[in-house]
Amino acid sequence: PPTTEESEEPNPLVAVEPSWVITQDSDGNVGQQIKVGSDFAIGEHARLGIMYGQTFVYNSNSNSSPGTQSMRDLGLTSQWHPNEVLKVEGMVGASQVGSTVATGERPVSPALIPITNLLFHITPPGDVVKLDVGFKRFIFDLSPELIANRAVRNDFILHPQISLRSGWRLRELAEIGPVTSTGQSNARFNSESTVGHKLGKSSELYSTYTTLYYAQPSAAGYFSPDLVQNAEGGWSTDLDRKSISLSLDCGAGAGRAKNHGESFGSLGLSMHAASFLTWTSNSGQELRASYEFYYDQSNPGVAQSSPGAWRMSVLTASLRWGKQ
Questions:
Q1: Please, is 39 exposed, middle or buried when counting C-beta atoms within 10 Å of its C-beta (0-12, 13-18, 19+)?
Q2: I need a surface site. Which of 73, 99, 214, 312 has the fewest CB within 10 A?
Q3: Cis link prior to 66 (omega < 30° from 0)?
Q4: Closest CA to 237 of 251, 224, 229, 247
Q5: For residue 77, what are the CA distances in angstroms to 38, 47, 48, 117?
């Protein structure tokens, strides 16, 4: 989906942002995350803060190990926006996970896992080209099995965007890096190439071609194919009405997957839909809510325990309160 135009960001002296996220998929995996962040201004162009989060993930279809998994996140956050060309966002911290039983009934000791999220937003004059470059390290937490096996994604991110005067838009997203787990490091590469055309002032029709590759199969709990190919077409729009803004995005297509040492399977349907709602008060406080739905017959987010299409829902709510 396209990115909206950036607006002038408020810079309150102190800000607090609690958020709540719940995820659920067709394999019975349920996750809940509560996070609280606070940051304060350092001059006109920088912010520094702290973040704390608590996550619980369990499988509603099974009472067997590894059972409910929990983890705590603590990190330092920062922003630096020296001019209109460059904006830097960063987080560095750690996730604490307790002892558990991993795949094969192997006991796993408690761990403190470093996490980070660093992103450079580069927008040269003219707004024709935009470039995001970054690195993200986080625990793969879509299922209790993934947390028990200490699955950690390390993504180097490259995301260029080009907007042409004719209304055409070109975007590329590349993620490359190892997925580590207990006893294994697995190279991962994901690429999303998008061509879009502007409709009116705030809508777009687009098509996206996606490939996903893993160097080797894994038993850590994530889907690790040799290659996935997927093509989707979609529509997105942004609606702004005084203090309320609403973004909608939906698309559908088809894909196929090839496991290591096997041939490509048959084509499978893929769909997605998302809505993002923001309410901004007269004093600049923001209340945000979103809902996302994914359906895929060939590229599930986790290693499924039963055949069939994989479905996932994500519900998010957050509040940002700032004091000038």
A1: buried
A2: 99
A3: yes
A4: 247
A5: 9, 8, 6, 9
